[in-house]
Amino acid sequence: MNQKSVYILGIESSCDDTSASVIYNGKVLSNVVANQEVHSKYGGVVPELASRAHQQNIVPVVQQALEQASINKSDLSAVAFTRGPGLMGSLLVGTSFAKSLALGLNIPLIDVNHMQGHILAHFIDEEDTKKPPFPFICLTISGGHTQIVKVSNHFEMEVLGETIDDAVGEAFDKSAKILGLRYPGGPLIDKYAQKGNPKAFKFTKPKVGDLDFSFSGLKTGILYFIQKQVKENPNFIEENLVDICASIQYTIVEILMDKLKNAVKHTGIKHIAIAGGVSANSEIRKRLQLAEKHWGWTTYVPKFEYTTDNAAMIAITGYLKYLNNNYSDISITAHPRLKVTE
Which pLDDT tens digit goes with each residue over 184-232? Predict the structure, then answer.
């Protein structure tokens, strides 16, 4: 096949967003995401409802992605899909659809590791964003993951440190729940924090290894602090919401930055990227820009649309695998607990 015209369809269905994207030679032609509003009233993702919604959304989303890219399905070079990690029911919808489509069109099928997808989103061909050189350090931060990964090439990755309990996105969402904010609470904490004083309240940072994370103790500390204050003043949250949010966000971002500093010290690598849903957070973006000035790092921050779960990151990973003839067998199955190095 002429390498000059490679069209990859990416399908992402690991959690509660159904997404399809078409990438042409590394450039995004379309990136369609259908969100599932149904979960907000439950305060979290309900797996059974998520997989049902994927079944309803996947055909129209793929159709839309092809239309926006102005191509027919017969133009596709390969179909890439998220194999894992994620919710089993959700992954099965994307896996089954991708297999059927690849079989029907008689084109290669390419499985993608969701976490590698977040990292490799940095290699989407965008005019105004720079790509990190190898090796680089990537902080992957999302609702389900918090890891520091050393990336030596597109498919050689090593986990240097990770959370021993909860993920950072969960810490944001649970803190928001304690404050009575709706799900997902992370973006709301970010919004209120921008108007507050980050030093108003002090929360204890957990003591774990140099490159590992722990957020369960911090969440408990926040819960006890709020309960104690509300007992003394029932209006405490309302009267101090922006300062509480700013203090929580400041503490969480301090933890992330401390670990990144340790990673740079351990490896000597000063090219630092962030990936995953929490990399949309304004404070972490601001602190990384400051790190460039203070510590001589070069930082790589993805566009907002490539931070949360999206199919463009699956399609770019599929494209890189396609160029290496790294295809999947049709017997491949979804893997909900896939590790970033697998």
Answer: 899 999 999 999 999 999 999 999 999 999 999 999 999 999 999 999 9
Strand, coil or helix: 212: coil
User: In this structure, what DSSP letter does residue 15 have?
Assistant: S
Structure pTM? 0.93
* 312 CB-side CA count, 13 A: 23
Q: What are phi and psi of 252, to 5 degrees?
A: -65, -45
Instruction: Give the DSSP per-residue string, 216-241.
Output: HHHHHHHHHHHHHHHHH-TTHHHHHH
Paired with 158 in beta bridges are 150
End-to-end Cα, the chain, rounded Å: 28
CB 88 within 8 A of CB 336: yes
What CA–CA distance (Å, rounded) separates 116 from 126?
Answer: 19
Q: Domains in the chain, start-ordered, CATH in brackets?
A: 7-123+308-323 (3.30.420.40), 136-301 (3.30.420.40)
Residues written for the chain: 342
The rounded distance, in Å, linking the Cα atoms of 68 and 61 is 10
Nearest-Å Rg of the Cα atoms of the chain is 20
What pLDDT, in 10s, does the model give residues 230-240?
Answer: 999 999 999 99
